Amino acid sequence: MRDAFIDTATALLDDDPRTAVVLADISASSFAPAARQHPDRVLNVGIREQLMVGVAGGLALTGLRPIVHSYATFAVDRAYEQLKLDLDHQGVGAVVVSVGASYDGASMGRTHMSPGDVALLDTLSDWTVHVPGHPAEVPGLLRAAARHDERVYLRLSTQVNDLPRPAAGQLTVVHRGGADAPLVVAVGPMLHPVLHAITGLDVTVAYTHTPRPFDVVGLRELVGAATSAGAVPAVVLVEPYLAGTSSALLGAALGGVPHRSLALGVGRTDLRRYGEPADHARWHGLDPAGLRRSITEFLG
């Protein structure tokens, strides 16, 4: 995903004079050729992530379309105040592109983990959030974000699904269960472990790489099938960041519809462990075995 982002952003710099890239050392070497070609629109501010976002806000005020890039924990957690003031408060936009996701950088410790990034952005206004599940989904999402001036977060990961689903801006059914089957919503790279987890279960699985704005209409349509069959709908939400991040949105979307729901994601407890991404997926119950255990217990 990171390579797809760098290639696409470089092409945008060549093709669109509005595009600018602001870095804080991360991936600076990869953008070095582009910086030589466009020294006025590829800016590396050094290890100053707050300044990176502030510069992006200034560029946006001049009419440019800035792309900001770093690890999620630096671009969102560390620079939250600048996202709030220099973008939200000023009423300007940027494309914030992160790597590291929740625990891709676990071998570097807690400093490089950011399971709460999307929850933090939910406290701000009018952010579109893309969580691609495959590298082939990245170019289309980035190009679409570069064409307007709104605030966009593109969350990249080393965890990937088997196949790209580039048209999954809305909930897209990838596995159909019976008429009253429970619904499992998989966000981004969670689709791969979910599909392995539900083998032999009568469930419907829907996928999205755009959890913000959440596809309320699609959710109600999918849940409506179970309601029409006389069942109380059961919805399992599987997200690759903090568990429960989208629970309020799901509850609001199904307001007035009796239902049961389960939110799965990264736990809130700091495990104080290094390890690899696969280790953390297992510890948080986001591997196929852990997901199957949680889903079957919930469904009874």
Automatic annotation (TrEMBL):
Pfam families: Transket_pyr. InterPro entries: PDH/Transketolase, THDP-binding, Transketo_C/PFOR_II, Transketolase-like_Pyr-bd. Residues 1-164 form the Transketolase-like pyrimidine-binding domain. This is Transketolase. It comes from Plantactinospora endophytica. The lineage of its organism: Bacteria, Bacillati, Actinomycetota, Actinomycetes, Micromonosporales.
